[in-house]
Amino acid sequence: MDARTEEGASRPFLIGVAGGSSSGKTTIAERLTELSGERHVALIKLDSYYVDLSDRSLQARSAFNFDHPDAFDWPLLNDHLAALTAGAAVPVPVYDFVQFNRTGETRLVHPARIVVVEGILVLWEPALRERFDLKVFLDTAPDLRLIRRLHRDVSERGRTTDSVIEQYLATVRPAHEQFIDPTKRYADVIVPEGGLNRPALDMLLARVRELAGTD
Hints:
alpha/beta, Rossmann fold, two-stranded antiparallel sheet, 7 helices, 20% strand
């Protein structure tokens, strides 16, 4: 607990934001970062840590189960959080959702007083889970999550409606029921309706601002 950041502050406060696909995790995490200031909050997205699939064809990559725990590079993520905690910047992989793979580029994330990690399974991996000082789970209704995912994947990721529904039925829903939803039991705070829950966002923002000293 005596690790120092580059500015000499005490160990950063780590927040894990979990929940099903399209539950509002990114909305919550990005709003916390935006309203608190990037100087105070470092944002890490679990999607950046999908395993490297460069040795597979595009067709094989598109059929990969991205909602299974084995889809993520947990050692790299844990190493990066350890480095951020010790006050070092980290090169976070940049992921391409159209090509289903890392781009080979990285995004440099600097240490900050608050570190927010968001993703579907951030409360699943034990070593990662133990790092968090505050664990949040966004509990959003399945039909709303499916509608959001359908809109996002078609408009932003070049998918077809049929492919989104097929993937949802084949991997997204089963993985949610088997791996993601059970991690609610580890959460300190469960937020109904995800990013649409303004009182919950205000509560989290107040806590983050208190920790960052930006009240």
